[in-house]
Amino acid sequence: MLAKVLEFFRNLPPKKCLHCGKEMDEQHECYGNTCSDCLGAAYRQ
Predict the structure, then answer these.
(1) What's the pLDDT score for residue 42?
(2) Each residue of 1-42: pLDDT tens digit?
(3) How many Å apart are CA 17 and CA 22, to the nearest integer?
(4) What domain count does the chain have?
(5) Domain residues for 20?
(6) Are 35 and 41 in contact (CB under 8 A)?
(7) Distance in angstroms (rounded) separating the CA atoms of residues 42 and 35
(8) How distant, in Å, are the alpha carbons of 15, 40 from that of 27?
(9) 35-44 confidence digits (pLDDT tens)
(10) Torsion angle, CA of 38/31/4/1, rounded to 10 degrees?
(11) Which pTM does this prediction carry?
(12) What would the DSSP string read from start to end of 14-34?
């Protein structure tokens, strides 16, 4: 059963930013959908 869950997450497509379409380097199951570049300088501090 655990193998099926792991296989599901392995087969998810790469997550992309909704604003610019850039592929995001983070977990696919997280809720954020905007890359750090599009969030602005306040995010990077």
Answers:
(1) 47
(2) 678 888 988 888 888 988 899 998 776 567 788 888 888 744
(3) 5
(4) 1
(5) 2-44
(6) no
(7) 13
(8) 8, 20
(9) 888 887 445 5
(10) 160
(11) 0.58
(12) PPB-TTT-PBP-S-TTSS--S
pLDDT at residue 45 greater than cutoff 80: no
Task: Please state the φ and ψ torsions of residue 16, each to the nearest 5 degrees.
Answer: -120, 145
pLDDT at 21: 92
Give dist(CA 33, CA 24) in Å, integer: 8
| Residue found under tokens 């087969």 | 11
Task: Write down the number of H helices and E strands in the chain.
Answer: 3, 0
Q: Which residues contact 9 (CB under 8 A, 6 or more apart)?
A: 28, 29
* Angle value at C-alpha 25, between 22 and 29, nearest 5 degrees: 105
